[in-house]
DNA sequence: AGCGGTCAAGTTGAT
DNA sequence: ATCAACTTGACCGCT
């Protein structure tokens, strides 16, 4: 069965996650700052509970958690531990409750750190900051039971082989909490499935197949080939990404995400697989609702 | 309530 | 040189 995943937020449903800007938080007194951050973290834990229930109630089998669910958690100047915030222990309990709820309702949870998180850089500061962010997301993953943290290859710096060698070396610096969840996804500019599949196999990491990125940046491998090879990197339910390009006359616009998924973009060879497909569409839960309807019409079984 | 300027972070390629 | 894209426009001060 196919499990569809919602990414980070809702378009229409009144479930909101909050963040804070570093400039503003940094201007507050330490006590006011801790109170502000605690309030945001608590509100986000509560929102995550409702997000889990919404997904489970609406045929959505997976939810991607926003990287800022604990706002500014690893900011160089403002980093904090939840236990040092007012009510922090209780907030951790709320996240553990999210984990229990997700388990009970059969919902898969994932993370996808943003573009600043990469292990290929030659700059130590960039790698160190990325590792801090990965460790934070792995810690929350432990509380809520998220099993995947997906990142991209990052830059190539004119020499992809060297960049991948640096990435492999950085893997040795990760805790087992990160290492057991980390996955690599092909992007639309630099790293193709052909680049990352051998890397993932060599390092025993799962490969997240983004079919839209592959269509933007092809590599000679067919969709069917990558699908089969990607599945082989997973010892558990594979995770794939799906989106549709915004209609536009310029070729460059093909990369922009559409509000909805065009059912014709759903690979025929994915039907009948036991996989999670994270849906990257701007209309969020509305796009999944429409996709579910269309998939049932063509006979694809969705949970 | 609504508006506009602003926001932590890396890298790439189009313009 | 600037800007948009990348999983996600949201926050905040001002009116």
Structure description:
β3, α4 (124-144) and β4 form a beta-alpha-beta unit. Strands 1-2-3-4-5-6-7-8 form an 8-stranded parallel beta barrel, surrounded by 5 helices. The chain is built from 10 helices and 8 strands. By secondary structure, it is an alpha/beta fold. It has helices spanning 22-27, 30-57, 88-104, 124-144, 160-171, 176-179, 193-203, 211-216, 223-232, 284-297; strands at residues 2-7, 62-65, 108-111, 148-152, 182-185, 207-210, 239-242, 275-279. α2 packs parallel to α3 (88-104) and α3 (88-104) packs across α4. The protein folds into 2 domains: 2-14 and 59-71 and 106-297, TIM Barrel; 15-58 and 72-105, no CATH class. The protein binds a DNA duplex (15 and 15 nucleotides) through α1 and α4.
Shape verdict:
globular
Distance between the termini: 6 Å
Residue-averaged pLDDT, rounded? 92
Poorly predicted spans = 248-252
Q: What is the N-to-C succession of helices and strands?
A: EHHEHEHEHHEHEHHEEH
Which CATH top level class of the largest domain fits?
A: Alpha Beta
Number of domains: 2
The value of Rg in angstroms is 19 Å
Please give a handful of descriptors for the protein shown:
DNA-binding; TIM Barrel; 303 residues; 8-stranded parallel barrel; globular; alpha/beta; 10 helices; 12% strand
Task: Give a short overview.
This protein folds into 2 domains: 2-14 and 59-71 and 106-297, Divalent-metal-dependent TIM barrel enzymes (TIM Barrel), CATH 3.20.20.150; 15-58 and 72-105, no CATH class. 43% of the residues lie in helices and 12% in strands.
């Amino acid at each position: 069965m196919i499990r569809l995943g919602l990414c980070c937020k809702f378009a229409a449903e009144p479930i909101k996650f909050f963040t804070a800007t570093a400039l503003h938080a940094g201007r507050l007194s330490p006590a006011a700052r801790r109170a502000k951050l605690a309030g945001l973290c608590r509100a986000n834990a509560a929102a995550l509970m409702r997000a889990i229930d919404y997904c489970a109630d609406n045929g959505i089998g997976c939810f991607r958690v926003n990287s800022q669910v604990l706002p500014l958690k690893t900011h160089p100047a403002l980093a904090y531990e939840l236990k040092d915030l007012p009510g922090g222990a209780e907030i951790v309990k709320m996240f553990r409750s999210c984990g229990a709820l997700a388990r009970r309702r059969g919902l898969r949870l994932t993370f996808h750190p943003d573009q600043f998180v990469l292990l290929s850089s030659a700059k130590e500061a960039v790698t160190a900051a990325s590792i801090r962010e990965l460790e934070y997301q792995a810690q929350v993953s432990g509380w809520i039971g998220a099993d995947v943290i997906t990142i991209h290859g990052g830059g190539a710096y004119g020499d992809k082989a060297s960049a991948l060698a640096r990435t492999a070396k950085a893997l040795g610096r990760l805790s087992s909490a990160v290492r057991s969840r980390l996955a690599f996804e092909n992007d639309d500019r630099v790293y193709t499935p052909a680049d990352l599949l051998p890397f993932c196999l060599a390092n025993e990491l799962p490969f997240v197949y983004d079919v839209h990125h592959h269509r933007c940046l092809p590599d000679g491998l067919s969709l069917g080939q990558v699908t089969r090879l990607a599945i082989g990197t997973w010892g558990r339910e594979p995770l794939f990404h799906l989106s549709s390009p915004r209609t536009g006359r310029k070729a460059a616009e093909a990369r922009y995400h559409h509000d909805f998924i065009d059912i014709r973009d759903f690979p025929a060879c994915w039907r009948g697989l036991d996989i999670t497909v994270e849906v990257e569409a701007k209309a969020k839960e509305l796009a999944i609702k429409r996709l579910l309807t269309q998939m049932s019409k063509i006979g694809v079984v969705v949970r």
